[in-house]
Write the structure tokens for this entry.
Amino acid sequence: MKKFSGVVAFAALALTGCGSICDDMLDASDTYRAKYSPCSSSLENIFDNEAFNVTQCERTVDKCTDAEQDAINDYADCLRTLPECSPSTRDTFKNAVEGCNLKIKDKVGNSCRSAL
């Protein structure tokens, strides 16, 4: 899960800036945090408890291609549709998060990722 935290943080940054993509990611990260909260003592937070940096996203999202931005939007949509985590659904929630991570894995290049 730790491997995906950087990817998640990156995607979060990419989605909150430029009007829609960065706003989408901010909303998705907030939604994720609310759904993750019931499991916070037993499951690693993919955002490492850091606030989403909208300003950075807005400054750098233009380094991402249209395809990369589409992948980030898909990722944000996936995060928003996650089920709420509970102690009895922790593994299901974790697997769903990893499914979301696949939406951006290998679809967002280094220049876009490093910009965020």
The chain has a mean pLDDT of 78. The radius of gyration is 13 Å. The CA atoms of residues 43 and 94 lie 8 Å apart.
